[in-house]
TrEMBL record:
GO terms for biological process: regulation of primary metabolic process. It comes from Mycobacterium heckeshornense. Keywords: ATP-binding, Kinase, Nucleotide-binding, Serine/threonine-protein kinase, Transferase. Its EC number is 2.7.11.1. This is non-specific serine/threonine protein kinase.
Amino acid sequence: MSNPQLSRVGSRFGPYQLMRLLGRGGMGEVYEAEDTRKHRVVALKLISGQFSGNPVFRARLQREADAAGRLTEPHVVPIHDYGEIDGQFYVEMRLIDGISLRNMLLRQGPMPPARAVAILSQVASALDAAHAAGVTHRDVKPENILITGNDFAYLVDFGIARAATDPGLTQTGTAVGTYNYMAPERFSSDEVTHSADIYSLACVLAECLTGSPPLSDGQHGAIDRLAPDAAAAAAQRVAAWKNSAGARPGDRQRHGEKPERALSERR
């Protein structure tokens, strides 16, 4: 397989013409690609060899992609197809014309509270629909939130992080995700439920308001670690989400919809 640090732009992957590298992470690379069979441009995630070559991962990815593909919530990026070509797994998704929340924060800095609430309420809606369908995301972070020109938000990568959480897929059962946004139970043998996604979303909100991701040591809620000079208006929104970032899963809101309502009341 090719060097993962080298872009494959301009090459073919089965029926896909790889046109532009959109992103690269621990799970693989995402390309803007043309599906030459259906004559449409899509987002194509190529799963890294570490995972593609593992039969446990392949079985789990198929199961999770099937479940995620049935989600019809407008803030969930639809999965068109998935499969394996020459030993490498891929997931084909709708291409979104927007930028990641990560890049937005890098360019613009902290958001006004009302805008942060408006954007993340949409993500909360996506999570609520997913949780109701029995789907957990497990990697909610700014990189996986896409924003269009009118501040319409999408949550991407449903099913992919969850498919990689089997202990046999990582060294000594290391959790798959991004540490700054991972609930404490992700680092232990405790059961991981939908509340882990809500914890992660609360951490993203904190970063939107202050410009820095909160740190969690497993004993204090992430929101308790906010920068002390955060604006008073931001603190009011954070207070509404404190129970979404509790260190213990039972202390958190169960679904994304509930913190969404709590925040909306404070606009």
